[in-house]
Amino acid sequence: MDPAQRASLLATKLRVLITERAAVDPTFGTFGGTSDGLVPVPFFAGAAALAGRRLFVLVEPSAAERDPMDTDPSAQPRPPRGWLGGAVVVANRHGCTEVNLMGDRLTGDDARRASRSMIPIRVWSVAGRALTLVGLLSYAAPEAPPTEALAFASVIAAAGADPVIEHGVLRAEVRGLEVARVQLDPYDGITRLDVGVGRHDRLAQAMMNQGQDPALALRNAVESVLALRRSGANAHPANQIAMSRWLRHVVGAHPELVGCTALTPLQGIEMPELKRLSPALLTGNSDAGPIVVACSVGVDLDAAIDAVDMAMFMGAHRVVLCLPKTDDLPAVRMVAGALTMAVEVVLVAADWADQTN
């Protein structure tokens, strides 16, 4: 669909949702059953409109967010990364005192993350023309991997990769890039080390290297990635994805960059994906107590929100957003300064990859 046509349709949908809700719920808006008082404002992840100092936002995924290889249509498409931070930016720029977020894929996790904003934000689920207020869902840390999976940690370390546990999965990372993961085969019930960068590569490797020792395959993958994921290497997908996790690897090796003596990887709010922006988190202790460090490369308006959300769950006293100088943008700073916990921004040099061990 033509972008202009899609924008017009979304703006109309937003007006209908607001008008019909206001007709049955006077507290929702003071429009008298019409939408004449709404002023459209730009919003990259759907549509938005102002009514005085109230902001109304429709969060609408596009087909561009769909993974054509995903066999689970219920999970696709998803709102683009940064939609919540984007709404916070729009609200701050217009001096809003209230935000209403609407979307058919918004969840209790989104409502909890939205509650980290100093500006009150209500999250509504859309079903047809009806809106239902979404309650906050407490963050629940996933269970640890089974014992059989944890046994592969020594194999991963021996191959020269870093064993990293996130969302109940043991992964092998090389400078932040996942090159293997331990998972249960649903057909034979055997726990295996599957080598490959990403889901599709793992499937291809399994078909091409049947019978090969996984430890040997992992060592080969580690050597290949080390040759590419270094400063000065020619451009290659292996050194252009999972950049935030690469920065986490560097900051973890140099905790003095954020005023700590030691840092350990911490799982993020979202399941990590190769091509989707998300902050790579670390935790440790500083003079101010427990700390959460969010490493972010690229323009991720949700990075500070996720860091604060995790810090609130952990009871941390300090939150640091670690960025390359090239990604230090006003919008990122605006979100970091609009949350219920103070977020300290620490900049690393543009050539931070040179500090890779």
Offer a few descriptive terms:
6-stranded mixed sheet, Nucleotidyltransferase, domain 5, alpha/beta, Trna Endonuclease, Chain: A, domain 1, globular, 357 residues
Beta-strand content: 15-25%
Strand order in the largest sheet: 1-2-3-4-5-6
**What is the domain tally?**
3
How much helicity do the residues have?
Answer: 25-40%
Written overview of the protein:
It is globular and about 65 Å long. A hairpin with a 2-residue loop joins β5 and β6. The protein has 357 residues and is of the alpha/beta class. The mean pLDDT is 87. The protein is built from ten helices and 15 strands. The termini are far apart. The longest helix is centred in the first third of the chain and has 22 residues, at 3-24. The chain has helices at 3-24, 83-93, 108-114, 147-150, 153-158, 199-208, 214-228, 243-253, 303-314, 330-336; strands spanning 39-41, 46-51, 54-59, 98-103, 121-127, 130-133, 162-166, 169-174, 177-184, 191-195, 263-266, 280-286, 289-295, 318-324, 343-348. The strands form three sheets. The chain has a six-stranded mixed β-sheet with strand order 1-2-3-4-5-6, with helices on both faces. The protein has a five-stranded mixed β-sheet with strand order 11-12-13-14-15. The protein has three domains: 3-133, Nucleotidyltransferase, domain 5 (2-Layer Sandwich); 147-237, no CATH class; 242-355, Trna Endonuclease, Chain: A, domain 1 (3-Layer(aba) Sandwich).
